[in-house]
Each structure stands twice: as C-alpha cells, then as structure tokens.
Amino acid sequence: MAMTIHVDIVSAERAIHSGLATMVFAPGEMGELGIAPRHTALITRLRPGEVRVEKENGEMEHFYVSGGMLEVQPNIVTVLADTAVRAHDLDEAAAAEAKRRAEDALAGKAADFQYAQAQAELAEAVAQLRAIERLRKTKVS
Q1: Are the CB atoms for 11 and 81 separated by under 8 Å?
Q2: What does the angle CA 50 – CA 56 – CA 57 come to, to the nearest 5 degrees?
Q3: 109 in the Ramachandran plot: left (φ > 0), alpha (ψ -120 to 50) or beta?
C-alpha cells in the first residue's frame, strides 16, 4: 500500500475535493510545487493555474484555481482558493473569449489600473486554457 496524504480543495463557494492522494502538484507563487506524503510544513500563495492530485490508483485529477493559499502539513494538504473548479467543468470558449478581451485591453493600455486588471485577467484565462489542454492530453494518453 502506497503512502498517502489527505487533500482538501476548497473555494469561497464550496468544498471541491476531499480525499487521499499519493502526490499533489500546485502552481506556487515561485513555481510548481510537488507535495508528497510527510512533506515538511509549508504555507505559500498560489498563482492561477492547475492543481493536480494523483490518487492511489495512479489516476490524476485536475482542478483549476484562480490563486489562493496552499497549506501543507505532514499528513494533509489544504488548498484555499477564491475560485476552484474541476478542470473538466471549465468552459474553453469562455476562457478563450476572456483571453481575447484581456489581450485587447492590454493592446489599448488606457490606464495603469485597467492595464494591471487586464494582465490579471489574461493570466487567469491562459491558466484555464492550459488546464483544459493538459486535461485533453491526459485523456489521449
């Protein structure tokens, strides 16, 4: 039997996932994190991106988070996000449209505040599209 770690993924609206995993991958502020059972304690901010949870049977579950916090204890990982969605529930057309709107806003560079907001929206849209693409690749494999 493989060693496991308990994983909770929670958004502002509801709990998205709770269960055991052999490995968790998350988009940390300074780069991607790989968290295994008995990982040292850690708290860090998350960038918009994909959280992957490897289950005991080797199956990988994919989630999109808009950012948030990650807390790691030796036997539990908690992801607290403003928005968290199962990757297969993401709307690719809506993400592509959001990306297009953000790129248009960045091209205009009307005001610093709008520019920063457009950059953040672009980062989220690109992260959603990457999560969709990675999920699509794993289904093909």
Answers
A1: yes
A2: 95
A3: left
Treating both helix axes as pointing N-terminal to C-terminal, what angle do 112-140 and 92-108 enclose, rounded to 10 degrees? 150
Instruction: Give the tokens for residue 98.
Output: 């959001």
> What confidence score (pLDDT) does residue 37 get?
95
pTM: 0.70
| 125 closest CA partner among 113, 114, 117 | 117
Domains of the chain: 5-87 (2.60.15.10), 90-140 (1.20.5)
Tokens read off for 2: 């493989």
Q: Strand locations in 56-138, DSSP E?
A: 60-65, 68-73, 76-81, 84-86
- pLDDT, tens digit, for every residue of 85-137? 876 666 667 667 767 777 777 676 555 557 677 777 777 777 777 777 776 67
Contact 79, 64 (CB under 8 A): no
